[in-house]
What does this fold into?
Amino acid sequence: PPSHNISALPQIARLALSRTREAMGRCGAARRRYRRAGDRQGEGNTLVNLANAHFHQGRLARALGLHRRALRIHGALGERGRVAVDVGNLGAVSHAMGDAGRARVYFQRALAMHRRLRDRRNEALMVGNLAGLLHDLGETARAEVRLREALRLHRVVGDRRGEARVLGNLGVLCEELGRLDESARSHGEALALFRAIGDRRSEGRVLC
It folds into this structure.
């Protein structure tokens, strides 16, 4: 595996934290402007961005609350696609908080919404989220079924990055199950796709 410059990591972390705080400040200011202008859609979308910033800083309870507020706004506006995404976001935060039962409910609800809307791209993402949850719950066989379903959907919509990520996850799963030849094939396909789309960071993760 490649060597890492450990001494540089705290500086990188401080820089990332600074950028996240700047983004949160901008989101907060934008939300106030939208509220004053009565732009509910702009306010809802900014709440999602703010929630994501809190999520990446580990403030999960705050992120959950902001996603719920965004959901209420998008629901009141009849924005069905955004509502489906909001529900999926609530599932992702609940999963990170260790609430697998609630995360499962949110993911399944979001999946049903995306299917009704015929949004295949977000359907693929939600199936992948369910696969990750099932894996964490130890339901390996069902996780593999969901991963293969997600892989098919990503290929249908031509999402090569999504396809590569699912292939990488399949490689990990097959390795855990002792199917090493299959694992190597999945990792190899993922690596080739990441190289083809120029995603050097993900390529590095596969190689490590």
